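Shall we go through a protein fold together, starting from nothing but its sequence? Please make up or recall a protein chain and show it to me in full. Go ahead whenever you are ready, and we will take it from there.
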Amino acid sequence: MSNIHASRHPLVAHKISILRNKNTKPKQFRELLHEIGHLLAYEATADLPIKQTVTLESPKKVYTATELAGKIGLVPILRSGLSFVNALETLIPSARILHLGIFREKVSLQPVEYYNKLPNVPNVDQVIVLEPMIATGGTAIATVSILKDWGIKSKIKFITACASKLGLEKLTEKYPDVEVFVGVVDGILDERGYIVPGLGDAGDRLYDTIQD
């Protein structure tokens, strides 16, 4: 799948190995996702369009300034997608943050939209969806559908720490134009739709809401 970009960076592999560990505490889990978000964002933003703007002066010579062309939207999927926001904001401080809330129903495993803070009319030129995990692919597909219906016509990108092979295949089959920048791809989903070995429930591990 040419639209799937699995990281080969040793730092990403190292940090995901710690992230997987069931003994990793919520504070470190949050910090690791922030760091992984930084590393994956470097790859995901490599082809952002730029434009030449005003003429400025360095200590030695005049030069033409370069800026990002177009407005970038960051779309964290609540709640775990919030873990990537600060990492991306640091790199793209001019980005707009557009929140979507989608949860996976426990029995049917189907995505359910419960929160949508998109403006009535698109106010960005392209979007980067922030979602630490793509398991069954249902939430990712629902997100792309919402964004396309909203009016996003340009390429949509995902940044995710861990994804299942099946989830990526389903997303690509439905939306082959969507690019995914992923830290690691796992081959198995269990009967409850969790990635194996995966990360567990990213939201629970981020915010320490795991029930004993």
Summary: The mean pLDDT is 92. The longest strand covers residues 156-164. The CA atoms of residues 163 and 185 lie 5 Å apart.
